[in-house]
Automatic annotation (TrEMBL):
MF-aspect GO terms: arylformamidase activity
This protein's UniProt keywords: Hydrolase, Signal
Protein name: Alpha/beta hydrolase
Family annotation (SUPFAM superfamilies): alpha/beta-Hydrolases
Lineage per the UniProt record: Bacteria, Pseudomonadati, Bacteroidota, Flavobacteriia, Flavobacteriales
InterPro entries per the UniProt record, alphabetical: AB_hydrolase_fold, BD-FAE-like_dom, GDXG_lipolytic_enzyme
Pfam family, any one: BD-FAE
Signal peptide: 1-19
Positions of the BD-FAE-like domain: 40-218
Gene3D superfamilies, alphabetized: alpha/beta hydrolase
UniProt keyword Transit peptide present: no
Length: 274
């Protein structure tokens, strides 16, 4: 069945290309090296239904040490086909960067989007953040910790897809960071930094609206941290209730590769297009 689905997607790729336009490797800020720049991809519909369309910035996961924006082009095209301009940024991975540098870079991707997305048919007043796994952590962090943005007014909503790292302070107290997976670099060995990295401790009435997916077959640490995050979030946003899906961690994002996924209709409802 899965082989048939992949074959169907391959057959439909020309349609996706006709329905959307991709702008690849647009520089948005300087990288770690003075000679490097971080880049993003933008996807816009070829025949938009309005002059200004809502925008989703999708941030990929990969345990903070792997991943590539170009892997997720189908997500950009699937949203663009539905009249959502989509931005997919790269960011510096561990061990070349820690969580703080990554979060600052994603905040800069948001600022670039505010300043330039109108050139691609997007509405800078309708920007939503979406992230899977480590990407979910980074968007939750910049949406809650005031260190990263002077104001979160530009963020109309936050979509967490099986987000990791929502309470690294509690997690790393039980399982201190090791060199494995570059965790000593990503999180440091300072408990104060673990807390600063944890979005759960920065939730407040100022937080943007959240929309949350959690896999019932995902990693136990993700289940625990999402449950704790939701309990605290509900003090400020009592109507938020996660959508639980019978999936493991990776399928929670690959489901978005399928253009017929029900997730798109749910997200369109969240951003006000349904």
């Amino acid at each position: 069945m899965k082989i048939n689905q992949y074959l169907l997607i391959l057959l439909m790729l020309p349609f996706f290309n006709c329905a959307s336009r991709k702008f690849k490797d647009v520089p948005y800020t300087k990288g770690i090296s003075k000679t490097d720049s971080l880049k993003l991809n933008v996807f816009e519909p070829r025949q938009p239904s309005a002059e200004k369309l809502p925008v989703i910035i999708f941030v990929h996961g990969g345990n903070w040490n792997t991943g590539d924006k170009d892997t997720y082009g189908l997500i950009g095209r699937n949203f663009a086909k539905r009249d959502v301009v989509t931005v997919i940024p790269s960011y510096t991975l561990s061990p070349k960067a820690n969580f703080d540098t990554m979060a600052k870079q994603i905040a800069e991707a948001l600022q670039w989007t505010e300043a330039h997305i109108a050139d691609y048919g997007g509405d800078p007043n309708q920007i939503y953040l979406m992230g899977h796994s480590a990407g979910g952590h980074l968007i939750a962090l910049i949406s809650t910790n005031p260190k990263y943005l002077e104001t979160t007014k530009a963020i109309k909503g936050v979509i967490l897809d099986d987000a990791a790292g929502l309470d690294m302070y509690s997690h790393l107290q039980q399982q201190p960071p090791k060199s494995e997976n570059n965790y000593k670099t990503t999180w440091t060995e300072d408990p104060e930094q673990w807390k600063a990295a944890s979005p759960i401790y920065f939730l407040s009435e100022a937080a943007p609206p959240f929309f949350i997916y959690v896999g019932t077959k995902t990693y136990q640490s993700i289940k625990i941290q999402n449950a704790a995050f939701l309990e605290r979030l509900n003090k400020f946003q009592p109507k938020v209730s996660p959508i639980y899906l019978k999936k493991k961690h990776v399928p929670m994002v690959t489901q978005f590769f399928w253009p017929w996924s029900d997730r798109y209709e749910e997200i369109l409802g969240f951003i006000g297009l349904k």
